[in-house]
């Protein structure tokens, strides 16, 4: 892949990842699901979730548990970029209210994206908490 095309894809993918981050901060599950492939697998510290409906259930549980959550992605690095597939790694942090008390956490994430019919979606996400 020529450098200009790679740079263009990285910019496009970074915009998708920032959109996903922003969607999560709305706590609107329908906005979040637009970024998730129907066959996605998500691996979280509390378990694995296969398919969009299981992922939906897991994310909705997080939204209920952490009120007023602010989720932030930092140190975003694209480790593989191709025309129809990409992998990124990043650091994440969150803060919000859990059972009426301020809480926060951080960790590392890896997302695998595929592009189908011109749309990038997450086919796999793995989040590992540092705490």
Task: Kindly describe this structure.
The chain has 131 residues and is an alpha+beta fold. The protein has one domain: Nuclear Transport Factor 2, Chain: A. Helix content is 33%, strand content 53%. It has three helices and six strands, in the order ααββαββββ. Strands 2-1-6-5-4-3 form a six-stranded mixed sheet, covered by helices on one side. A hairpin with a 2-residue loop joins strand 5 and strand 6 (119-129). The longest helix is centred in the N-terminal third of the chain and has 24 residues, at 3-26. The mean pLDDT is 95.
Topology:
Blueprint: H1 3-26, H2 29-33, E1 36-44, E2 47-50, H3 52-65, E3 67-81, E4 85-98, E5 101-116, E6 119-129
Calculate the terminal CA-CA distance, rounded to whole Å. 39 Å
- Give the number of domains: 1
Q: How many strand units? A: 6
Quaternary structure state of the chains depicted: single chain
Number of helices in the DSSP assignment: 3
Tell me the Rg in angstroms.
Answer: 15 Å
Mean of all residue-level pLDDT scores: 95
What does the overall shape look like? globular
The major pleated sheet works out as: 6 strands, mixed
The arrangement of helices and strands along the chain is HHEEHEEEE
| Helix content, binned percent | 25-40%
Q: Would you tell me which CATH topology applies?
A: Nuclear Transport Factor 2, Chain: A
CATH class: Alpha Beta
Low-pLDDT residue spans: none
Instruction: Assign the structural class, choosing from mainly alpha, mainly beta, alpha/beta, alpha+beta, or little secondary structure.
Output: alpha+beta
Spatial strand sequence of the major β-sheet:
2-1-6-5-4-3
What percent strand?
over 45%
Supply the CATH architecture. Roll
């Amino acid at each position: 892949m020529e450098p200009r095309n790679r740079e263009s894809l990285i910019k496009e993918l970074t915009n998708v990842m920032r959109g996903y981050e922003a969607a999560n901060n709305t706590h609107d599950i329908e906005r979040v699901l637009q970024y998730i492939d129907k066959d996605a697998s998500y691996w979280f510290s509390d378990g694995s979730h296969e398919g969009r409906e299981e992922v939906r259930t897991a994310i909705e549980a997080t939204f209920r548990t952490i009120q007023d959550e602010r989720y932030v992605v930092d140190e975003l690095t694209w480790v593989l970029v191709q025309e129809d597939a990409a992998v990124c790694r990043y650091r994440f942090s969150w803060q919000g209210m859990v059972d009426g008390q301020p809480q926060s956490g951080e960790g590392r994430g890896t997302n695998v994206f595929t592009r189908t019919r011109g749309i990038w979606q997450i086919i796999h996400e793995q989040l590992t908490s540092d705490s």
